[in-house]
Amino acid sequence: MFIDFNANPSSPELQGDICLVGSGVIGLALCSHLLAHTNLRLILLESGDLGGAPDDAAVPAELNTGDIDSGVADSRARGFGGSSQRWAGQALPFSANDLAPRPYLNGAGWPVRLGDLEPYYAMATRFLGLDERPFSADLWNEPALSGLFAPASPLGLNFSKYSPHPNLAPLWRQRIAASDRVICLTNAHATHLEVDADHQRVSGVAIRSRQGRPGRVRAQRVVLCAGGVENPRLLLASDQVHPRGLGNDHDLVGRYYQDHVGFYGAHLEPLDWRAFRHLFASFVQGRHKFVPKLQLTDAAQCSLQLLNVTGNLGVQLEETAPVLGLRRLYNNLRHGALGRHNLRDLKMLPKAPLESAKILYSHVVQGRIRIPRESRIFLIANAESEPLRDSRIQLASERDAYGLRRARIHWLVSDRTRVALDAYFAEVKRVLEGAGIARVHRNPMLAETNDDWKSRGYSLYHHMGGTRMASRPEDGVVNPDSRVFSLANLYVAGSSVFPTGSSSNPTFTALALSFRLAEHLAAASPTP
């Protein structure tokens, strides 16, 4: 059921078996598994509204310092469903090397391995409604093309999958409304965590309405699943007993913050249009979309001591181009957001019937998203950033509308990212020009050893690392089961537990870890 804390005239003290702080992708994944496999009573806390209206969903901009603006406000959303309201639904797993210790990389090495996550990647696949063929599948089916990315090549060819229903709110609203074992308390902003007299367990989650009315939720176990910024912020804000906050005995909460660096690294000039389109055009099969990726292989990263880099095509067109109108229509349809704002896109299509027909033919008949010849084409990189101790989330003195101290994001990006980007685009140039597929015009800023290139880098809104996972409390905030080392009943779920960030979009791996946690929480609980 849903309860609106704003509309509740009293100050309730709800009780449950597990309290999930956050109703976004991770919170709903945990909720779905626990509802299906236990009899536990769940409380789902959501700081926003049920409807997710744009004004209500907006998250105030956080304070940014450091090398690159982390773009936290644009990527997050309040309201039931959380940031899935804005998420495109892209999924790509981490590789074995992403999780392994890398002697050349400070702070690398997860306490879990790829084999530990593979069963939970399968759960995440079903939860997102993804196509179930392996990510290693050869969608291109052309030996000459595959030969360019043979095992010995520093570049690998793979693809990401897109969920046909990235906005989870419409899928789960009715299920939770009809359940008698879960209460989703909306407009309930978690302000801090309370601990018992021995400081060994969390005794409650303090909440506040928009009007400032306080409340409290009590549960046997608490899971923070509020996102890569809010998870560490909530631990830091829980400083009523420990001045540095909870789980922060070794001053690690908020540290090692990472994001992915987006970078327009090369302008591509196709030479062989047939081969170019076959290599880079996205695949569409029913409601499923697959986007081709060129990625540094694990072997190349290890031999050259590089961070991970993945790249995919970016296309720039005039705002009035029919393909942009079709793309907006398609994306709004996937998010269930078609409306009057799409009228201009619909009116645009008859003005260019031939181009619209080509786009539809490519999409419907050939199963590919057309790359228009008149576009400017770029290869856009998604680059890993090195985990640095002084790259961190802290609490500022300024306060938000709830009276809470705002987060300050100090994202540091080392020169290792530039070196990896430079090596990546050099290899892309060698492969594409050597095969006569495209001429590659690299961004000259990457060859320079100063920091000017960072002015062209941008955040990909992937907030990671602020509550990192480790085998020892001296090295991290949570243990391999995602439990905060110093508290017996507090867990953290989501990308904030990542020790390193790969170059893959983080949500798929965050989901895998969350299903692994859900299984751990359910292990000693009765089945329905």
Overview of the structural elements:
By secondary structure, the chain is an alpha/beta fold. It has a single domain, classed as FAD/NAD(P)-binding domain (3-Layer(bba) Sandwich), CATH 3.50.50.60. The protein has 15 helices and 20 strands. Strands 5, 6, 11, 12, 13, 14, 15, 18 and 19 form a nine-stranded antiparallel beta sheet that branches. Strands 1, 2, 3, 7, 8, 9, 10 and 20 form an eight-stranded mixed beta sheet that branches. A hairpin with a 6-residue loop joins strand 8 and strand 9. Helix 5 crosses helix 15. The chain is globular, with a radius of gyration of 23 Å.
Brief summary of the model shown:
The chain has 528 residues and is α/β, with parallel strands linked by helices. Helices cover 27% and strands 23% of the residues.
What's the architecture in CATH terms? 3-Layer(bba) Sandwich
Q: Give the overall average pLDDT.
A: 90
Count of domain modules: 1
Q: How far do the termini sit from each other? A: 18 Å
Q: Whole-number radius of gyration?
A: 23 Å
CATH C-level class: Alpha Beta
| Distinct helical segment count | 15
Percent strand = 15-25%
